[in-house]
């Protein structure tokens, strides 16, 4: 585990470094508070810091306050090294955000015990963050394909639509359905169908833009949300996805399985008062038309026209 030692005394820094390296820690050093603060802001910064109370530019207390003000993960365990031993000084240090303190001249055994406690806290915090991330993935990702699940992709659409209205941008959606998917399950079995779904999702994800979102809408259907994309751009992107699907057969147990998809596109023009249901209804109607007229094609649905037809 990495530990930062910040002390303006070269002798103290060297003594601490040799001691901690002897215990198996990877040691970073800083000669003043500004250098320590810069190191703690790095992406791979140590999660334990031993800070001298009195240092140039930023004191140990000031660094504690800066770190706690950011309140970012992962947690940084802060240990103050000080010659101050009065109760009010200790209260001040802990109030600034320090987790613990060691009085100079430090006792090696005491320092080792306090570092061990800090390490346990950091490791528990990291385990908690890992568990939270795993739960987040389970809640938002489709278990089979790894793309967004239905709930998550609809939440993405629910966020992007009002944002597009505020910013005066287009927003398009693409609804995709794998053609003749039931025949794959009937002929090769559900394991083959799963393999086709996984590969189809991979091919479509490789075809969307970095800021687009792709989710499994249900069964063999996928929904792509395309911020800032007009109808022409959405048709072009959907055509690319269709090409990705049909490009090569999916191999399962050495047998080639041809994969194609039908695509329905709908677009909310910049600033238009269009709802989520309006967009999805238009895309679904267009998808149905693509399936009805032969599959493996892209059809665009007009949101306004669909609304007029449904109201007549």
Topology of this protein?
Blueprint (H helix, E strand, L loop, with lengths): L1 E5 L3 H13 L3 E5 L2 H8 L7 E5 L7 H11 L6 E6 L4 H9 L4 E4 L4 H33 L9 H18 L3 E8 L2 H8 L1 H16 L7 E6 L2 E7 L3 H16 L3 E3 L2 E3 L3 E8 L7 H17 L5 E3 L2 H9 L1
Parallel strand pairs: 1-2, 1-3, 3-4, 4-5, 11-12
Antiparallel strand pairs: 6-8, 6-11, 7-8, 9-10
Helix pairs in contact: 2-3, 7-8, 10-11
Strand content: 15-25%
What integer is the average pLDDT? 89
Number of domains: 2
Low-confidence stretches: 306-312
Q: What overall geometry do the principal axes of the alpha carbons give?
A: elongated
Mind telling me the C-alpha Rg?
A: 29 Å
CATH class of the largest domain: Alpha Beta
By CATH, the topology of the largest domain is: Alpha-Beta Plaits
Order of helices and strands: EHEHEHEHEHHEHHEEHEEEHEH
Number of helices: 11
**Structure summary, number of beta strands:** 12
Distance between the termini: 69 Å
Class derived from helix and strand content: alpha/beta
Relevant CATH superfamily of the largest domain: Reverse transcriptase/Diguanylate cyclase domain
Tell me which CATH architecture of the largest domain applies here. Answer: 2-Layer Sandwich
- What is the percent of helical residues? 40-55%
């Amino acid at each position: 585990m990495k530990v930062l030692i910040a002390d303006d005394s070269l002798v103290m820094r060297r003594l601490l470094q040799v001691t901690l390296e002897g215990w198996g820690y990877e040691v970073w050093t800083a000669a003043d508070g500004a250098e320590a603060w810069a190191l703690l802001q790095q992406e791979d910064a140590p999660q334990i810091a031993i800070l001298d109370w009195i240092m140039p530019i930023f004191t140990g207390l000031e660094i504690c306050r800066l770190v706690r003000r950011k309140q970012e993960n992962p947690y940084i365990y802060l240990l103050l090294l000080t010659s101050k031993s009065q109760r009010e000084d200790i209260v001040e240090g802990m109030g600034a955000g320090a987790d613990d303190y060691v009085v100079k001249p430090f006792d090696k055994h005491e320092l080792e015990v306090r570092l061990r406690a800090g390490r346990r806290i950091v490791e528990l915090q990291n385990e908690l963050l890992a568990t939270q991330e795993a739960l987040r993935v389970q809640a938002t990702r489709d278990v089979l394909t790894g793309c967004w699940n239905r709930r998550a992709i609809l939440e993405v659409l629910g966020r992007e639509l009002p944002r597009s209205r505020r910013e005066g941008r287009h927003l398009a959606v693409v609804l995709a359905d794998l053609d003749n998917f039931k025949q794959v399950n009937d002929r090769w079995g559900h394991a083959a169908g799963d393999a086709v779904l996984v590969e189809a999702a991979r091919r479509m994800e490789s075809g969307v833009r970095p800021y687009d979102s792709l989710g499994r809408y249900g069964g063999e259907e996928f929904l792509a949300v395309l911020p800032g994309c007009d109808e022409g751009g959405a048709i072009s992107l959907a055509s690319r996805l269709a090409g990705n699907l049909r490009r090569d057969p999916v191999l399962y147990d050495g047998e080639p399985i041809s994969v194609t998809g039908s695509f329905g596109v709908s677009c909310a023009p910049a600033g238009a008062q269009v709802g989520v249901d309006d967009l999805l209804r238009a895309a679904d109607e267009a998808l149905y038309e693509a399936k009805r007229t032969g599959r493996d094609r892209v059809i665009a649905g007009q949101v306004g026209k669909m609304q007029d037809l449904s109201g007549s």
